[in-house]
Write a structure and sequence with these properties.
Structural class: alpha/beta
Shape: globular
Number of strands: 13
Oligomer: single chain
Radius of gyration: 24 Å
Number of helices: 9
Largest sheet: 9 strands, mixed
Strand content: 15-25%
Helix content: 25-40%
Distance between the termini: 77 Å
Length: 266
């Protein structure tokens, strides 16, 4: 074999692992992020499935879009009940859930942004509040971390709601229901003492027979939760997503939040 040709083949063979590694590393870097959000419509957080690209798509959707566009990514939306979103995340069938409050028990499903062993509130997507809703003539109040004049009826929450942890410490009867609509229907019939849910649910179920108590039951941070599979394969990108979530509070968050606060329900 010609010596020069032999040298060229040797160089090509020695470089082949690097070429293959570069190719597959580049190919493995995702441009599309599969993102799960609940399949209900909840003003002002999100619209019905299929409307994620509509003008004013919802607070959570729009905040997330800012992050994704800064990283030059695209989103494939998966709409499912919350518990199904957690299962999909655990199985690696979606990459991100938008958005989840922190519970230690939920760590089995995926990853939160952590800093020195604790969840990093600076990397939240947003803050949000749970409020209590009661019958219009009820004397019930939420004051200084507990119910006043609640009576003997149960308090309704949605299945899987993180507020259960706090309310379970109140020595009150809790009933978990599949939807906020079910809970508000029972409240109108005075079959329960109160509904405790995300404050945004009150817009959809506003009724002269129902009033929202002024003091929030709990204000919580909500995070972009990332699957263990995505984090293991794309750790740097996952950390960039959380870093942009933190940067959001300096740039766009207040403007977007104020816009939706000024809107009427859809």
């Amino acid at each position: 074999m010609n010596r020069k040709l032999f040298q060229q083949i040797s160089v090509l063979i020695s470089a082949l692992p690097f070429i293959l590694f570069s190719h597959f590393s580049s190919a493995a870097t995702p441009t599309m992020i599969n993102t799960c959000v609940m399949d209900s419509e909840l003003f002002p957080l999100w619209r019905k499935p299929g409307q994620e690209k509509q003008q004013n798509p919802g607070l959570n959707i729009e905040l997330y879009d800012v992050i994704i566009k800064k990283l030059d990514l695209q989103t494939s939306w998966v709409r499912a009940p919350f518990l199904r979103c957690l299962a999909l995340l655990q199985n690696g069938e979606v990459d991100v859930i938008n958005a989840v409050s922190y519970q230690q028990a939920r760590e089995q499903f995926g990853r939160y942004p952590f800093n020195k062993g604790v969840v990093d509130v600076q990397k939240r997507l947003k803050f949000d509040s749970y409020h209590a809703f009661v019958y219009a003539t009820a004397e019930t109040q939420w004051q200084d971390g507990h119910f006043v004049k609640l009576g003997n009826q149960a308090v309704a929450i949605e299945i899987g709601a993180s507020i259960k942890t706090l309310l379970s410490q109140q020595n009150i009867a809790l009933i978990e229901l599949p939807s906020a609509g079910h809970a508000f229907g029972m409240l109108k019939k005075q079959r329960i003492a109160a509904v405790v849910t995300n404050q945004n649910n009150g817009f959809k179920y506003a009724d002269p027979l129902i009033k929202q108590l002024a003091e929030p039951v709990q204000t919580k941070a909500y995070y972009l939760m990332i699957s263990n599979q995505f984090y293991s394969a794309h750790k740097e990108l996952a950390e960039q997503i959380w870093a942009e979530s933190e940067a959001l509070h300096i740039s766009e968050s207040e403007r977007i939040t104020n816009k939706y606060n000024q809107m009427s329900p859809w």
